[in-house]
Queue: 2 jobs
Job 1
Amino acid sequence: MSVRTRVAPSPTGTPHLGTAYIALFNKAYAEQQGGDFILRIEDSDTVRSSKQSEVDILDALKWLDLDWDEGPDIGGSRGPYRVSERLTHYEAHANELIQAGGAFTCFCSQERLDELRREQQRQGETPKYDGHCLALSESEVQRRIDEGESHVVRLRVPDSGDCTFTDRIRGEITIPWQQVDMQVLVKSDGFPTYHLCATVDDHLMGITHILRGEEWISSCPKHVLIYDYFGWQFQELFHLPLLRNKDQSKMSKRKNPTGINYYRDRGYLPEALLNYLATMGWSMPDESEQFSYAQLTEKLDLTRISPRGPVFDVEKLDWLNGCYIRDLPDEELRTRFSSWAGNSANLEKIVSMLKERTERFDQVLTQVDYLIGERKPIDKEDLMQPPLSEEDVVKILDFAARTLECITTWRSDEIGVALRHTAEICDYKVRDFVAPLFVALSGRKVALPLFDSIEVLGLELTRARLRSAIDILGGISNKKLKRLDKEWTTLTQS
Ligand code: GLU
């Protein structure tokens, strides 16, 4: 049987390092075994999914050379490769599951479910569905569907006993059925949830090995049930350890940039980033830290992956990237550097910003240093500007980051409107609000227009500079973070 692996990102945001990490091991394993690596787009969340996000994910994976043998852009024998184009498969399988007694139709209203959750929380129980609609007769279900009542399909879960399955990295895992919720499989809009589309697609696409993040372990019992109801053969499972921040917490954008494009824009080489990702949980038999993708595919042994959470350490990545830079022949390095510096989208914006402010080309570099290169070192005094207190400045930097995270169209005019609005609801003069932002982002008090600069820097680099400025001011304690969360919610919801 030929090996088939897959990566199945949801197109709900900017391309994530975790997607590249999972794709890398899936691709390397398929290649080693002479099999196929498949890219499937899980756009089952109709509200959060976007075409742009899908395009960005495909581009980012291609930049890393993680291309696929079958996928939405190139097709293949088991397509289509987008969940939204496979709805008839899920509908047919959901109906079959209902007939077999493995799933049931549920009409419970959101109000009832909310009340149930609150009650269970009051009793100190873990919230989960109570089986209310399990007792409905077939005829009542049909009548209510015919009357157009909104409904979902839920998985029927045994109420006692345990589910045992094997993870090839961790060994046998047992989870009591009591801990497993009667998960929704088909939403009221007819779209499947992850559990239904992932299991049906993995089966129909002939996937033989599933390598994914460890956060999906708790979903396995639901998948085991679906596979058992259909009598399908379960794939070999490998749950790769989650990437972690230096403090061992789950890697998060608050502490580490998590977007692939951040690393591309800062001038990391794709092969260095891939190499570094390959050391997350895996180590070469000879312990070497610098190795190529080809060496990885030659030596990879999935059962040697360690379940202990690997720390994604940017300083270590810098070191490795430096090794790769030094290994490149000068001419190759020149080509790579100029294509990075001349990144056309950014260059266009930078040129139009400079046009009004430049008389000779040799004046360009001093103006755009912070847009193309690193920000100059700054200290506390640089960030403090009257009439703002230190607390004000931290709040402004934090609220600016939160504001930018909510922007859907990354353009300077939208950025300007959003930041001005935040200044207004927080009762700051726009002039005072933007002053620390200038310093945090450019390292200077005066720089090119702020909102245009933010557009060029992109969300991740902007956020990283705002966070580093906050750290220069002493950081935000957990207690203070809670206060800021509360204030932000109140301000933005009123
Ligand atoms: N759509 C899921 C994700 O984005 C896929 C999980 C899986 O690989 O089963 O992580």
Note: The mean pLDDT is 94.
Job 2
Amino acid sequence: MICNMNDDYSDKNAALGALYAEHIEIVSARHDHALELAGATHAIIYSGNPKIAFLDDYQMPFKPNPHFVSWAPLTHLPFSYIVFTRGEAPILIYYQPHDYWHVVPGAADGYWASHFDIRIVHSREDVAEHLPEEREKCIFVGEIDDDAMAFGIERVNPNAAINALHFARGMKTQYELAIMRLASRRGAIGHVAAEAAFRDGMAEFDIHQAYCKAVSHVDPELPYGNIIGLNEHGAVLHYTDLDREPPAVIRSFLIDAGAHVHGYASDITRTYSFGEKRFQDLIDRMDAMQQDIVNQVQVGVDFRDLQIGTHKMLAGLLVDAELANGDPDTLLETGVTSAFFPHGLGHLLGVQVHDVGGFMENETGTIIDPPSGHPYLRLTRVLEEDMVLTIEPGLYLIDMLLENLRGTPAEGHVNWDSVDWLRPFGGIRIEDNVRVLINDRENLTRDAFAQL
Ligand code: GLY
Ligand code: MN
Ligand code: MN
């Protein structure tokens, strides 16, 4: 990623360069192992190509193959390939077209460059001469929408190799952790700017612009579409409409927004009250509960247990806040907590916002299902050292879900007057990015806010 807001984010960053040597050794070893499992000699990792809009000649924003980005911070290099041969330095086939319509990739330099045997090509036909001749000994890793791009390689994304790579990507290298700290910092800078815009009474659209300016991203550079919801909009889990005018009365603000550094994401949510004390008290309780959950993150924890434990804690919170009544087990069994909190507690984070491998028990691809009644949980693994995941409990006023409780044993456990009170505020979500340690954890998000 090219970024001029701060040298920290540049691929000339010497500290990242020092960590990169170990990273590429680890990535190479993972591919060595994946090739062994697949019974192949070479992995050809394709960066991808921009999609073209239907019946048009307009390119959609380019989304690179995450496998390619996990090798090097080359997020703007379509039609390029990494050739990894067991025991050898990787070759980078660097596509630099003669094109006067677009800005083409510049010189191949940066802290990553000396680790590759770089071959510049100016046309797609020139790629083939840099690929291993024995195509039957190759596996292709990436998305192809045109068989010509696989250059006759028939084994495309074989499960044995892909599962092993996905499983391994759950654990971050020191280089990846350093980048993700930068992505957290970048996101935190945006959140501070967005909160100031909210306090100034701005519309969702203008808060979004303030965020993008602070993180120096245009929309396609964001890891996901910003969720910027005022008042009731905070209850729409993936709200991305961005009203152009502020509401007549401003009550609350839910922002779920991240940032990218070298292809790695942060994913951060905060909720604010515009002055209403009861809503601020509820935010404070949710914040304390979220930190209690974060403090349970450590090696060996089964994330499914954390999901269920969160529902039990939320049940107590709902009773304290007079939104519900009854004991925690009853509120779980009758579906009250799920109506207020209908999504998963968290997910793996990395190159992808919902990083791969969250359901994998092992590298062969055995799947661990979410617990019954929790279909949207995206992380079911036992936590391992240096995983990075989100912890993002929520509490929302979603009438569609609460109305389903009418006429069931849950109805009498909901305090409907308090529900009416909460509706105009939408909801609350607090989301941090957390690294798993032995008997400990690192909160990338809170550290980033504290260091601003
Ligand atoms: N921002 C999407 C998520 O929190 O999962
Ligand atoms: Mn989020
Ligand atoms: Mn998230």
Note: Confidence is low (pLDDT under 50) at residues 1-5.
